[in-house]
């Protein structure tokens, strides 16, 4: 089960395509709920722990209702942290609420190591890449759950590129990009950008052409706000799953798989009362 970030649905909808490509290449059987699909944990932002628990319980109930083996923790740093905290509360209340989950880094490492997806580094030749450690996926997970994601994303990036340069400092000592604490969407752009000068200098020192990120807030800050204030060094920003998707060697599905997928799709649209032939585009 996969939960998209609402920003990726309503604003940057094409950003969802990267995951879809990966799921296709890995021959994955996956779904997104038609209700309660939001990845961002707004309850966490407002300190509403009852609502935080409720949001997690919705995910648990959906998984158990449809016999889903595991969910990918949302890419939104607050969303994944909030989801896990809410699920933890639900399991304390009732051990039967335990469900399977994995972090996006563990999932990507798994499908690469198992050979379920193939990558071609040559498509990224001629560019230098660096990795930004998200506070939420690094320090905060390490502090609250004993495991931060530092080595896994670097390993994933290195499977996709030949030229990788780490930032200094890195991992748990890496600088916040300036979007943390809700600073990206809040009306304190100058203050956020002032803090981001540290991240800008880090990126510049690597000489990287591309900054790879794993958090949606970090991505927006590094891609949109930092270049607005600091203009003498240019770079691209890519999600780590975007990098993987662009490096994929896509192999078509077998005819039997395509036929089965079409059967399931037709049944779904019929259940929803949608007639694709009658729709205008």
From TrEMBL:
InterPro entries: Cys_rich_dom. This is Cysteine-rich domain-containing protein. Keywords: 4Fe-4S, Electron transport, Iron, Iron-sulfur, Metal-binding, Oxidoreductase, Transport. Its cofactor is [4Fe-4S] cluster. Residues 130-222 form the Cysteine-rich domain. It comes from the Bacteria. The keyword Electron transport applies. It comes from Pseudodesulfovibrio portus. It catalyses: a quinone + succinate = fumarate + a quinol.
């Amino acid at each position: 089960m996969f939960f998209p970030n609402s920003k990726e649905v309503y604003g940057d909808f094409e950003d969802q395509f990267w995951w879809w490509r990966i799921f296709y290449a890995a021959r994955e059987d996956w779904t997104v709920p038609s209700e309660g699909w939001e990845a961002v944990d707004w309850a966490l932002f407002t300190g509403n722990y009852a609502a935080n628990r409720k949001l997690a319980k919705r995910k648990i109930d959906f998984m158990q209702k449809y016999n889903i083996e595991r969910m990918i923790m949302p890419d939104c740093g607050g969303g994944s942290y909030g989801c896990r905290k809410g699920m933890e509360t639900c399991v304390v209340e009732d051990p039967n609420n335990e469900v399977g989950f994995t972090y996006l880094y563990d999932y990507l490492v798994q499908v690469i190591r198992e050979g379920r997806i193939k990558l071609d580094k040559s498509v990224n030749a001629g560019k230098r890449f660096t990795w930004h450690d998200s506070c939420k996926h690094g320090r905060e997970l390490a502090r609250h759950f004993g495991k931060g994601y530092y080595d896994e994303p670097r390993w994933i990036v290195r499977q996709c590129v030949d030229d990788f340069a780490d930032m200094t400092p890195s991992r748990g000592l890496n600088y916040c990009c300036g979007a943390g604490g809700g600073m990206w969407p809040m009306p304190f752009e100058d203050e956020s950008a002032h803090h981001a000068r540290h991240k800008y200098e880090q990126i510049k020192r690597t000489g990287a052409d591309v900054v790879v990120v794993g958090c949606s807030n970090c991505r927006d800050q590094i891609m949109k706000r930092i270049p607005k204030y600091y203009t003498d060094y240019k770079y691209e920003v890519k999600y780590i799953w975007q990098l993987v998707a662009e490096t994929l060697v896509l192999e078509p599905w077998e005819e039997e798989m395509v036929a089965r997928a079409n059967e399931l799709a037709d049944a779904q649209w019929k259940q929803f009362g949608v007639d694709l032939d009658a729709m205008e585009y």
